[in-house]
Specification:
Layout: H1 11-16, E1 29-31, H2 32-39, H3 43-50, E2 64-66, H4 67-81, E3 90-92, E4 97-99, E5 105-110, E6 115-121, E7 128-134, H5 138-142, E8 146-149
Parallel strand pairs: 5-8
Antiparallel strand pairs: 1-2, 3-4, 5-6, 6-7
Helix pairs in contact: 2-3
């Protein structure tokens, strides 16, 4: 990408961009230019959406698109590319696919008393993968994985001895 400046990007990066359909007002009609401004894309990008299936109100100019049709188009487009993880799988960001952790081993890292994260390493690339899970749904999410539970770190107030940097005298 020589000579295209600091904002140069490949076609694969533009395909990975997600457009939030909730930004669209469903009771409004949009021109191509307004849709382009709403999602910060070029007008030709919006015109390219019309070719594969984004419906316009009619064939006249300016091209008008109903808000509810635009929101549905973007939602369906997002659902087509979405990849759901099965039980025992995490989504690997580097591989861009659901994967099982190496050696089918994961670690549960508690965040709150009722939920936490499952952590494992991708068997293909070695990247650390995370998956959110509540304690209630842990057996379903983990599937056939061997899950090790990490002990929660002790808080200062829970310790029996005072902190080393405390100015308080210990009572004997």
């Amino acid at each position: 990408m020589v000579g295209r400046g600091p904002r140069a990007h490949s076609n694969s990066q533009t395909l990975l961009r997600r457009y939030n359909p909730r930004r669209v007002k469903i009771h409004r009609s949009y021109t191509v230019e307004e849709v382009a401004q709403l999602f910060r894309v070029h007008k030709n990008t919006v015109r390219a959406w019309v070719k594969p299936g984004l419906q316009t109100i009619d064939e006249r100019r300016p091209t008008l698109i109903l808000g509810r049709v635009l929101a549905r188009f973007l939602h369906e487009r997002r659902q087509r590319t979405r990849q759901r993880c099965q039980p025992g799988q995490f989504y690997c960001v580097r591989c861009r696919a659901p994967k099982e952790p190496a050696a089918r081993v994961a670690e549960y890292v508690p965040i709150t008393p009722i939920s936490g994260n499952l952590r494992g390493r991708c068997g293909d690339c070695g990247t650390v993968m995370w998956r959110r899970a509540s304690l209630r749904s842990l057996t379903v999410v983990a599937g056939a994985l061997d899950v090790a539970f990490q002990q929660a770190q002790q808080r200062i107030g829970d310790s029996s001895s005072s902190s080393l940097n405390s100015d308080l005298d210990e009572v004997a």
